[in-house]
Amino acid sequence: MKRLVILSIAIMVSGVVAWAQGSYEEYLRATRQEYSQYKNDKKREFEEFRARANADYTRLMREQWAEFRGEEAVPAPAKEVAPPVVPTTAPVEERTIPAEDKPVAVDNVVKMAPVAPEKKLQPVVRIDDAEVSADSRPDYRKGPYEFTFYGTTCGVRLANNLSFSLTAVDENAIADEWARLCANKGYADLVKDCLSLAREMSLCDWAYLQMVETISGAFCGRETNEAVLLQSFVLNQSGYKIRIARTPQNKLCLLVASNYMIYDKKYFVLDGERFYLLQSFAGNRLKIFNSKFPNDCAIDMSIADVPKLARKMVNKRTLVSQQYPDLSVSVAINRNLMDFYNSYPTSSRQQDENTKWNIYARVPLSYESRAQLYPALRQAIAGKSEAEAANILLNFVQTAFKYEYDDKVWGRDRIFTADETLYYPYSDCEDRSILYSRLVQDLLGLDVVLIYYPGHLATAVSFNEPVTGDYLRINGRRYLVCDPTYIGASIGRTMTGLDNTKVQVIVL
Question: Cβ atoms within 10 A of the Cβ of 445, count?
């Protein structure tokens, strides 16, 4: 009897479990169907929005383009208003005796305000998250049409039957071709592949512009009207704020908006915004199709991530600290990355040229450089106090690199990212300050600012422990002067000959 009761209970439980399992599976099926329907509805809504936006934009393109007069390119800021400070070697007492506390008067604080009210880009052609590879070594060939971008082989879906030829560049001819580009799924796939590559390769806006230009020029012919139109289309559908223009000689040009001042590039002011001319043009008047596209955004000239380019490791050099000779490390740098940085135009925010240093100082050190450099630096500062570690890193930057003026090496001002200082044989005060700020932030986790004297750039570090020396206060926090160009000097020391009564602070 007892066994019969147990058997009955088991049958009942198994029935309940079977019912529950069936109900759960039905729930999952219903949930999946509901989510699938939601995605399909959203996709349909988005495609309808895209069709309307493109149709309205194409219709406006047929109207008379307006003539605008351009502004001459603003030359990149001169190296210094004041004569550059000659680097000096610190006296023995400034290397060994702790510095006394001396406040530094702050004349001006330079901050990089966020790019407002711009929002994130809203591409008209979307890519799903599932289409973005999470592989640390992704294949950059999305399609059979291959091209080389800074030594990196990439591919997109761009078939030969998508080629086109413009017989005219008047309003109707451009609008007709634009309508065909919008209607052909092949071009939407191209935009999708470009956006996917940008995510996987960590391309900033400037790199994306260059990649699209590379594809368009390779497919349509460099500097042809067809290449300019295809580049304009891809950027427009990717969410960038662009304008198409026509020269008196019927040559198409592309204008791209930016909230940054991009030096050495001609620009046009349209509806209060600066649109920069990407092609060379000797004249100063263009016929421009000046209509806004929904949700488009100006390009951001910052570099939040290092582009993931094919590795071409060159210029291996050994860097040795004079005061800490055991700190010796060999570093090779990716030449493809150097070529990209060399193409990057100098720019600034809020029409304040001192923000140019902020832009370069915020660029991360590449993975390859961190992998070679940081293990030796971490070993050298292991178990040290913040002040001791900061001194070790400071002497490394002061003594492991050769100093030279930009005017002598480059013939102009040339700001380096941290990777470039590791690559090139010479560097100056601004390059060393940017590299030191990167090392302190990455290895010590301390806040750093750049400090500008007439003719000289240095750093200041906010320590968590009491450290004496020349210091300044920003927003209630104390920052100690650390000069990567004052050879051999310890933290807290200001280079001989500099005026510490007034400095400008560049907040990173």
Answer: 9
CA torsion 407-410-413-418 (nearest 10°) is: -120
Cis-peptide into 117, omega within 30 deg: yes
Which alpha helices (H) appear in 62-83, and where do they start and end? none
327, 207: one domain: no
pLDDT tens string 337-379 = 999 999 999 999 877 888 999 999 999 999 999 999 999 999 9
The number of domains in the chain is: 3
Q: Is 306 helix (H, G, I), strand (E, B) or coil?
A: coil
CA distances from 78 to 42, 84, 406, 430 (A): 52, 11, 11, 14
Task: Clarify whether residues 223 and 136 are in a common domain.
Answer: yes
Secondary structure (DSSP) of 148-186? EETTEEEEE---GGG----S--SHHHHHHHHHHHHH-HH
215-223: long-range pairs with CB below 8 Å, 24+: 215/145, 215/147, 215/156, 215/158, 215/190, 218/147, 219/145, 219/158, 219/163, 220/163, 223/279
CA distance 5 to 100: 89
CATH number at residue 490: 3.10.620
Which is more confident, 353 or 138? Answer: 353
Query: Which residues fall within 8 angstroms of residue 416, CB to CB, at 6 or more apart?
Result: 360, 424, 427, 430, 431, 434, 435
The answer to whether 235 and 297 are in contact (CB under 8 A) is no
pLDDT tens digit string along 277-295?
988 888 999 999 999 999 9
Cα 439 to Cα 370: distance, rounded to the nearest angstrom: 10
The length of the chain is: 508
- Kindly state whether residues 471 and 337 are assigned to the same domain: yes
For every residue of 349-413, DSSP letters joined together read ETTBTTHHHHHHHTSPPPHHHHHHHHHHHHHHHTT--HHHHHHHHHHHHHHSSEE--HHHHTSS-
